[in-house]
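LOG
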Amino acid sequence: MKRVILICLCVLGVNSFAQTNQDLIKHYEAYYKQMKKQGDIQGVINGLTHLNLLKPSQAREDTLSLVYMSEGKYRQALNTIGIKNNATDSDIAIEVKAISLKALNELERASIFFEKMFNRKPDVSIAYELAESYLQTNQLEKAKTYTSYGVENSTNEMKKTFYETQQPYQVSFKAAFLHLDALITFNKNKKANADSAVDILDEALKLAPNFNLAQLTKNALLQQKQQINNQQD
């Protein structure tokens, strides 16, 4: 008799827990929707976190990491989904890993995921990220591959935003790729290629006269060239 009572109590406990769990899921689903409606990002994060604990979902986890990334919380984004290169990663997961790793200056790791993004859907903006990352890690041939792709596939309507001035500004992606190409050319041989790099920068400035960063780079190269000539004299 005691055994029967114990079994009944266990069954009631399981049913009660299941009911409570379902109630919590419904509560946090409603909470999540309301936070989205109100534009409360921290509320969205809290809602997704609770839902993922109550009812784990890879799609929900990816969404949570994307929200973290969008808020500039790159470490939290990566802590949510990890940094392993998984064959089953969704497009969102790959994008979060690429952008977050780059933001944390993990350029070589970031390049792995930008490559995956590019292989799934080639795009000039991803090519720019790859060219820039490979340039910064001195992988010049790889960087050149993506600048060439960018120059060939950019249209006048495609714009890249730069932020080194107080007021952000835009230039054509082709001009932006030419700026990277000039830096690649210069870094291949700083003594011999200064003039060629300046010529490429002039081409970029013709396309985008407002390209402040290209002008700064040109001035720096001309100054460095002058210093080398003075030393030789």
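LOG (cont.) second protein
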Amino acid sequence: MQPKRATIYEVASLAGVSHQTVSRYLRHNGGLRPATTAKVEKAIAELNYRPNLVARSMRTRRTGRLAFLVPASRLNILPLRLVSEAVAVGHASGFAIELIGLEGSGAERVARLEELAQSGQFEGLLSLGTGAQGPAVSSATPLVTISNYDDELRGTGKLADSAAGVRIVQTLADLGHEHFLHITGPAGWASARNRLQTFLQTTADLGVSATVVDGDWDGQSGFDAVAALPRDTPVTAVVAANDHVAVGAMRALSGRGWKVPRDVSVFGWDGHDFGRFCTPSLSTVYIDVERQGREAMERLVALARGEEPPAPDTTSLHTLLVRESIGPAPTRRPRLKAPPTRP
């Protein structure tokens, strides 16, 4: 048998305030003294109180629900760090979050978005890669579209910014590296194209040699690129399009008898957590997608409450993380062994 659900009156009694005060706190109307807010929060935590959203909806015509809309066909590449942060912010603000995968073409997804906005089921809609190209929703329901993603959930704009690539090449050049290998991402992605362009421009500006091998975001492409290097390659620095490609390259270097970073330095991109636990730990560019999710949800919550949304952070999403996988260019290196067996 499930325990009885705590009521707003029990919260008020434990906090030593009126039930109207608790209700005001739950509606986020503000104006409460910090001491009162602290007592209410403490009572809510002790009683594990959760608002009855159905009852509240009947009284106030507010549902306490927000919808997070994503293209159903792209769930395999959903930016989970972004989604998790957005959902956490929504929950902390007292809303239930419903993740909805929209089927069909771009136009069909926009039509479904319009339908959900008109349904009255949700107090706000958060759209990832859906609706950015469509018409404005003709409804009083607030809509926030997370920018910098197209309908295929490929990064664009600030998310695809490659300015950090200048610092990658410069950092490695300052360590004495003169022969660089870049393993690309797929050309259909703006981020891959931008990273390649920045790599080529920066190596040209610095007067160092640059070799480019096509990749596809997958670790296997990094492995294959290094496995294909001639035994007498002069390459001492690998700049991979992402962390998966970088780890594949590191595996192949090890299989060919070269140590990272003693013989070859490796730099990744995207800041995946697994890079911290590689041996050696992977130098990379961290992209703060959590901030994208947090800011979008904070904006939606404010609009749903009729409040002024907070100002967005305009600083770069990208941060260079220098770790153990890069070091000074070697003066002498052992000859590469034969290509390793495909893993």
